[in-house]
What does this fold into?
Amino acid sequence: MTATSPPSSPGSKTGRNALALLLCRVGADLLNFLLFLVVSRRFGPEGMGEYGYGFALAGLVYYAATLGIDEYGVREYAIQQAQRRRQLISNLLGAQVCIALVVLVVLLGYLAITRPTPHMLLIIASMTTYQLGAAFSATLFVPAMAEQHMLPPAFINLLGRGSAFVVTGILIWVFDWSLHAASVAFAIGGLLMLVLALRSAAAFKVRLRPDMSRQIVFDGARTLWSFAAVGLLGQLLNRIGVIALSLQIGEAAAGIYTTGLKLVEVACLPLVFIGVAAYPRLCQVFTNPGAFRRVTRQALLIGLLLALVLAGAMYVAVPPLLVPVLGERFAGSETIIAAMAAIVLAQGVEIVLGRLMLAARLNVARAVRITIGTIVCVLLTVSLTPLFGINATIAALVCSYLLVDLMYFGSLFGSLRRRGYATA
It folds into this structure.
């Protein structure tokens, strides 16, 4: 275990892991896109509005319950000694269970106020179960991810997500089920993911019984709040537009916006998974000033160029395909989807800078800055969407991401200069 790896080994392993994560995620997202097509063609923008609204609420539950544990856990697992790793997962699960219960109480309060229809309530419940399964799976995948054995978690994620998408699509397209009835398959997919993730974690001999003692939960909340804030507020930053459009404009507008957000998410996948694969190595390299300086420069250059390419591809290639692929009811939305390519660029830069800030242990600074960006986005979206519609929603998100990018950049390089990492 003490042998020195060849110089090319870390980069090669990172590349293989990034490829495995990307392929499995692309596979799952391809199935998701096929479901997206089924829902779009069968139910139109109104159905996509219901689908997007349910996913927006369930997504907030996911990020609140995840607490950023996967990112924090991978960082701590990668640098801790072996005897402390077994207890780490137990501690994280204990904190996560307690927070998940609080999140569910908040969700129930929101539903009591908004009073969704029984059909919408079933969609929300099914997708929330799915997202909770994914949230706990992310924690259970920490040992495998930190050890850079990333293929099994990627495959389990593909299997759980893919089964939900495939079964839901078949029930709608072949058996003519309603959206709310077919959405139960999401709950089953989430439970499948959870069971397989438990087996993955058990292979690393970690403690799987959640430690829910008062001190552990308190320490976990104190440590993880910044990671949780980034995940939850980042999700709110992206999804507040869906919620605002659903409540203030209508389900059709929300459906078009949800369609664009899905395409943005797919476009950003290469940046996301290159960052995930490189993250353990970044955490280790941070102790070496020269190496971290080189990695930071390379990541920013490559990330910016890739974000530009992906944004350009979405702007040019996607709009002409909307009606042929999604159906006539999406006619007229081409210019809206093209405008949303700007989100790819702004969000892509945030993905790169955010991962570097985590590796540099600037998670609290990142949480503060994403909080500011989210507050700005909520205020702009809620105030301008009723007046100017979906275009204002897009502009609010782009401006908020650009603000976050500037604050991330200043925080990261200010910290590097103070530590003597920057060049003279």
